[in-house]
Amino acid sequence: MAVGALAAGAMLVVPALPAGAKGAEAGGAGPWYYLTDSQGGVASNVLEYGSPNDRVYAGDFNADNRDSILVRRGGQYFVRNALSSGPADYSFYYGDPGDTVLVGDWNGDGTDTLAVRRGGQYFIKNTTSTGPADYSFYYGNPGDTVLVGDWNGDGTDTLAVRRGGQYFVKNSTSTGPADYSFYYGNPGDTVLVGDWNGDNTDTLTVRRGGQYFVKNSTSTGPADFNYFYGDPTDVALVGDWNGDGTDTLGVRRNPVKWVPGDGRWLVGSQVAPARYRSGAGNGGGCYWERRSNNADDLNGINANDFNLGTRAYVDLATTDVAFETSDCGAWAPVYSGSYVDAPRDGDWLVGADIRPGLYTATTPGECYWARVTDFRHELSSIIDNDYGSYQVTVLPTDTGLTTSRCGFVYAGSASAAGTTAAASNGDPTEIAATKELAEQADK
Ligand SMILES: [Ca+2]
Ligand SMILES: [Ca+2]
Ligand SMILES: [Ca+2]
Ligand SMILES: [Ca+2]
């Protein structure tokens, strides 16, 4: 199904997935996270963090009321407090590489930290830093599934153990019997913990495939409501991603940054939303389209291009559903290369393929160029363009240059040549008219 826009999926019953509860490890693989701030609907934030095989957790590690993604490699934990793609803010060690680890706010200071579980014993630490546990206690049996939540709304997370469809709740992190128990769902259900209605109390959601059955009290009885999110095979995480006090879902996915060749590829599940480069069919003509659906209609085309040159770039957006490519060869992720001083027909990445500066046309008659902010190949991608042009000045702030029939050669830095160029996008009407002229010349 469509993955760019995480729409409702068909109801399917699938085998129990790894426990994706808030507080517990989420499971799955992949560095891509599709987070939503609502119950159902589309992803509101898509980000890449860590490596495909990292173990992951969600939590608020800086007390800003927003949860973020924590990745684990053995006994080392990498914290990033921003919900955006990028490196870790810091890392620390806790416990042994084989330990089961839980995340929670054990002391009610607003910051989530770790607890290590060994059998029925829990070793609590109240800071995200390397060092010994602050204290330990026992709860339940070594074989119990354990959940973390603030069951009584006092601001402190504690444990509940699950035995089949029965849950034994304890409201303190101390050794002793459960305070109460209740039943919810079936023994085989995947269960998630969160504050689904913003009343500061955590309760359960049962997941069956891509459908989520929410209950807003820790008591026996039917679900209060249900909704769909993502695909039935997605691994789900729970967090308050926008700090509104309500927990919502995210799914973890493992698309690859590589488009092997001709065909239709689903963005988000098969191929990552990223920047790609192809050899563009070595002059034989490379056709591609970014699609808003997985059908064949013209309306589903977000952008397309027929590239007769030797280099093509495309930026697949997180909102793209599919990428169709034909006679372009493989599309590879972009790394810096050596500069080309005679960028012929095609797309060129500034700072990787070509350097900023002045380029003069050796065949100016039907020369078309566009300085671009990205490779989505939309009109809004174009900073400036010209047709029948003798030269172009590429600024260091430009992302790329697209050219056809110019035969450009590098003519020195812009300052040395005494030329100037606008850094921001020009008149959109003029840009569209110029592009139209160049497309007429293509025919
Ligand atoms: Ca936070
Ligand atoms: Ca805390
Ligand atoms: Ca509590
Ligand atoms: Ca609640």
Describe, in plain words, how this protein is organized in 3D.
There is one protein chain. The chain is 4% helix and 36% strand. The chain contains 2 helices and 34 strands. The protein has a 4-stranded antiparallel β-sheet with strand order 2-1-20-19, with no helix packed on it. A 4-stranded antiparallel β-sheet has the order 3-4-5-6, with no helix packed on it. The protein has a 4-stranded antiparallel β-sheet with strand order 7-8-9-10, with no helix packed on it. The longest helix has 15 residues, at 428-442. The chain starts with 31 loop residues before the first strand and ends with a helix. Bound molecules: calcium ion (4 copies). Residues 105-107, 109, 111, 113, 126 line the site of one calcium ion.
Radius of gyration in whole Å, from Cα?
26 Å
Helix content: under 10%
Apparent shape:
elongated
> How are strands sequenced across the largest beta sheet?
2-1-20-19
